Amino acid sequence: MILVAGPYRSGTGDDPRKLEANVRAMNEAALVLFRAGHLPVTGEALALPLLETAGSARPGDALFQEVFHPVAERLLSRCDAVLRIGGPSEGADMMVAQARAQGKDVYGSLAAVPAVVPAAAR
Questions:
Q1: What span, in angstroms and rounded, lies between the C-alpha atoms of 108 and 92?
Q2: Whole-model pTM above 0.85?
Q3: Residue pair 1/41 in contact by the 8 Å Cβ criterion
Q4: From start to end of the chain, where are the E strands?
Q5: Alpha carbon distance 82, 42 (integer Å)
Q6: Which of 11, 13, 94, 8 has the alpha carbon at shortest distance from 47?
Q7: Average confidence (pLDDT) over 13-22
Q8: Measuring CA to CA, which residue among 62, 63, 31, 32 is closest to residue 45?
């Protein structure tokens, strides 16, 4: 299971279109990983529906602070590796640092992620 970590709010001014574009970039990387045989996940996929349900009014509000990064941190503890994509992001860099501290693999590009060897070929 590989956590795809990239910018969500960084450089967006919280513009919904830019936030959506950042989520799409993470999802596109996740799809490539999935097609290569991995199980990709993003913190956004779990946190954003929780934030909506909790009644978060905007990125950065108190509910966002309560949920967004803690979801990614809990998710990271279950992952085997992190794929860091995109530009500057304190949150994504925090996930990378935590992954390294936990002894997990960290990849800086899709090309660096090893291919999955099918069980039948082992």
A1: 12
A2: yes
A3: yes
A4: 2-5, 40-41, 81-84, 105-107
A5: 10
A6: 8
A7: 97
A8: 31
Q: Are 64 and 47 in contact (CB under 8 A)?
A: no
Number of other CB atoms surrounding residue 115 within 10 Å: 8
What is the distance, to the nearest Å, from the Cα of residue 110 to the centroid of all Cα atoms in its chain?
A: 14
97: left (phi over 0), alpha (psi -120 to 50) or beta: alpha
Cα torsion through 37, 39, 41, 45, rounded to 10: 100
Nearest partner of 28 among 11, 40, 43, judged by Cα:
40
The pairing of strands 40-41 and 2-5 is parallel
**Tokens representing residue 1 in the block:** 């299971």
Whether the pLDDT of residue 122 is over 60: the answer is: no
Helix (H) or strand (E) holding 91: helix 90-101
Q: Summarize pLDDT for 22-77 with one digit per residue, the tens.
A: 999 999 999 999 999 999 999 999 999 999 999 999 999 999 999 999 999 999 99
